[in-house]
Amino acid sequence: MTGLSDSFQRPIDYLRISVTDRCNLRCIYCMPAEGVRLMSHEDILSYEEIHKVAEAAAELGIKKLRITGGEPLVRAGLPKLVQMLAQIDAIDDISLTTNGILLANYAAELKSAGLRRVNVSLDTLKPDRFKEITRYGNFADVLEGIEVAKSVGLNPTKINVVVMSGINDDELIDFATKTITEGWHVRFIEHMPFGEHANTFTFISVAEMRQRLAVLGELEPCSFKGNGPAKYFRLPQAKGTIGFITPVSEHFCFNCNRLRLTADGKLRPCLLSEEEIDLRQPLRSGISSAELKSLIKKAVANKPLRHNLAEGRVPQDRPFSQVGG
Ligand code: SAM
Q1: 133 C-alpha vs ligand 1 centroid, how far in Å?
Q2: pLDDT at residue number 1
Q3: Are 209 and 155 in contact (CB under 8 A)?
């Protein structure tokens, strides 16, 4: 096996799989209150179809998978998919991105099925504010999910925080303090200007976040397990880490190692480009493994050099919840 690389010589070894466009929350920056038009059940790839794509991708050089959505844990039987994916020889890492609401119920089963680690999206530590941001969620459920995930060995469990001015930017220090008091691994993410709230929040760059965190002491650079673009640091005496992700202020496209599979079976070479290659129709017309691999190679070859968020260009074709953040 020679591995996959795109036309800019970037090695591609990571596939993010969205298993549903449905979500049990309506986070203000991600989905409108009334939700978005949903895909029909027949539009969504079955677990067998997802497995077929992952297997072909693994034979080409994909080694790491992340399951996302929508909210992946609202799809019935997710541990079964994890178990199927874990049996693919070349796959050495399977992770999950979740809002954590249902995590306590499934963490043990997911771990036994072969899940390695989990990222939990949590934008506030205040229960009332949690309800305002997510419109539905119960904060205590997420906290319990994080604890159960850690206790069953989903390691590391990382906490993803989208930082929004006037919404949760006053909690930067509280989140950072959790890396000392609880050993949390917290990642601060710049808000990307998408959807109905594209321009509602004043943008806060990672540079500004770092300035605000300076009162806690010097951030020591450190290395930390992950497949993505975060840069990691540690505060003095912290067991946990602080990661920063800069999709807007400093794109990391030159290191991009990923492809995305949408819940309705499109391979998307870049989160922020509308270009997609349909796999569902070919899968349902009995495509051979060799033909499937050539479509995957085509998607890799079509990866754009970089996105154009900084120039204000954002994809209009699908809401974020459908692509799988
Ligand atoms: N439901 C799962 C979750 O909550 O993690 C997975 C899907 S969610 C769309 C994936 C991630 O995208 C979350 O961490 C969410 O905070 C992030 N996200 C959604 N809209 C975003 C935006 N406009 N800017 C930055 N991150 C965003």
Answers
A1: 12
A2: 46
A3: no
